[in-house]
Amino acid sequence: MLLLLLAWVGATFGPIFWAWKENALVSLGLVLGLLFGYIVQLIWLFSGNIIIIDMLWMRPNNLFDLNIFTLFTSGFLHSTPMHVLSNIVIIALVGIPLEQRMGRARWLVIYVIGLLGGSLCWSIANLGTNTPALGASGAAFGILGAYLAGWPKDEVYFPLIIIRPWPVSLIALIYFGLEIVRTYQTLGLSQPSHVGHLAHLGGFAFAYACLNTVAKNGPVPPGETSEKFGPLKDLPSEHPFENVAHIMEKLYEEGDQKETRQAWMEELTEQTTCPVCQGPLIVKNYRVRCQTSTSHLHWP
Fold it and tell me: For the residues of 221-283, what is the DSSP string, one character each?
């Protein structure tokens, strides 16, 4: 049982730590972690070690009996393949562009706020019961709430009827509105439901309320809705890039769009080195930086 528990910890949190270490998107690492963690859960079920799940999911009755950690761990467990896939869709399609707005550390903070906010709301509403709760839905709805609070006019690809760019405000408000209706059906009309709708609303509301504080001084200020950047500033003449004139030309021509700027900057870092120390370059928050020291290069 201990080996299976350690396998779940490694499968779930390993991709997140890898993404952080490699300066990759933490949201992508988290998507992989949720998927790999669920695969280990299936192994638990096939091996008969269901007691491990009972240790990690959240039960309001036992919450404050040395089980406070389940407010967090329950957000990395899922009940069915559709349960985990529905959360992964939101975290991947909405969470990745949100991370590009906020930066990795701030994105992780808002993700945890949504997760804990959802867990707390559901637990308080169900005090006195022993019904377990699990899933990343509170955190996923927190991503929607945070994006709505910060950059509501952004458009992201999302499967609403068809897969195409939709305004974040439309996606978030549709999801939030549906959860209000479902919460009323469950509580007001006493219709049974196995879904923690209050966790969804709680995650959404907590992240929405905290976004401006968390995103303050981040890469892109909340409220900036333009998809375009300002013109790229020229590199200092004493520190030019070498042998990448064609890439620089493309950057100056197409670098006002965030997707193309990111793509050409990544190509640039693969084809050249720091003009000061000849060390490797990285792209972070749409800027090219020297991996050894930002004092060498931090452009633009």
Answer: -TT---SBPPPPPPPPTTS--SS-HHHHHHHHHHTTBHHHHHHHHHHHHHH---TTT---EEE
Instruction: Please report whether residue 226 resides in a domain.
Output: no
Q: Are residues 132 and 56 in the same domain?
A: yes
User: Facing residues of 163 across strands?
Assistant: 159
DSSP state of 94: I
Q: What is the pLDDT of residue 260?
A: 74
Same domain for 124 and 259, yes or no, is no
pTM value surpassing 0.90 = no
Binning pLDDT at 50, 70 and 90, where does residue 226 land?
Answer: very low
Question: Whose structure tokens read 């690809």?
Answer: 157
Of 30, 286, 12, give the one whose Cα is nearest residue 140.
30
Which amino acid, one-letter code, is at 194? H
Task: Give residue-wise pLDDT tens across range 71-123.
Answer: 899 999 998 899 999 999 999 999 999 998 898 999 999 999 999 999 998 88
Q: What are phi and psi of 183, to 5 degrees?
A: -65, -40
Q: Residue 227 falls within a domain, yes or no?
A: no
As for how many domains the chain has, the answer is 2
pLDDT at 112: 97
- The first and second tokens of residue 193, run together, are 């439901």
Q: Which domain holds residue 123?
A: 2-215
Q: Is 235 part of any domain?
A: no
